[in-house]
Amino acid sequence: AQSVTQPDIHITVSEGASLELRCNYSYGATPYLFWYVQSPGQGLQLLLKYFSGDTLVQGIKGFEAEFKRSQSSFNLRKPSVHWSDAAEYFCAVGAPYNTDKLIFGTGTRLQVFP
Amino acid sequence: DGGITQSPKYLFRKEGQNVTLSCEQNLNHDAMYWYRQDPGQGLRLIYYSQIVNDFQKGDIAEGYSVSREKKESFPLTVTSAQKNPTAFYLCASSMGQDSNQPQHFGDGTRLSIL
Q: What per-residue string of b and e applies to B18-39 under the rule 16 or more CB within 10 Å gives b?
């Protein structure tokens, strides 16, 4: 069964600094991988997804993520954080062509200081 | 605009009362899902439905019930058997199995006990 771990519960960065949020997964083959963002009191918005092919995927709002099979990781990055990026970020893993059973990580809360 | 509408945004339940959360989508998606979100625990799947008149239990179905009489609608009932219902409830939809399309989320319903 697949699982996903987000080791950092809470991260604080200064505006303009770079950001990397960690995500590690456990799955027997190459899974489908997703990053979602959630603002307070809102639903989840998809930032980006990886299914196959190029291991560096670009998403919305200037985010990117890199799939590293050897490390079972799918870390989210942004070169320069804006105050509006403050939110909670969730990594999710699913089996290929069976995204009914997504497994979500426990989330990383990002705080941005001016 | 296509999307998922959850109502109400806030809901209060008295002891021994059943309450129903509404979820409607106009994305023409086959699959719909209900998640429960508690602080520090990420999202946990309650029920999901891949097609009209059919649904499956997720990881935490006890104390909840659903119906799927129409493709667009997937209401969730929190029954009196659910002893700890206070949480944020998220509805999602997707193209379903055999699809590489991600899940799309509504803005959630926050349920509290009176």
A: ebebbbbbeeebbbbbbbbbee
Supply φ then ψ for residue B46, to 5 degrees: -95, -60
Q: Which residue from B6, B48, B105 is facing A44, i.e. has the nearest CB?
A: B105
Handedness of CA A24, A25, A28, A31 (dihedral sign): negative
> A73-78 and A3-5 as β-strands: parallel, antiparallel, unpaired?
unpaired
Residue type, A87: A
Distance of alpha carbon A84 from alpha carbon A65, whole angstroms = 19
| Longest CA–CA separation in chain A, Å | 42
DSSP-derived secondary structure letter, B102: P
pLDDT, tens digit only, all 114 positions of chain A: 778 999 999 999 999 999 999 999 998 788 889 999 999 889 999 999 998 888 999 999 999 999 999 999 999 999 999 999 999 999 999 877 665 678 899 999 999 998
CB-based contact, B59 to chain A, within 8 Å: no
Chain A within 8 Å of B96 (Cβ-Cβ)?
A: yes
Determine contact, residues B4/B104, Cβ cutoff 8 Å.
yes
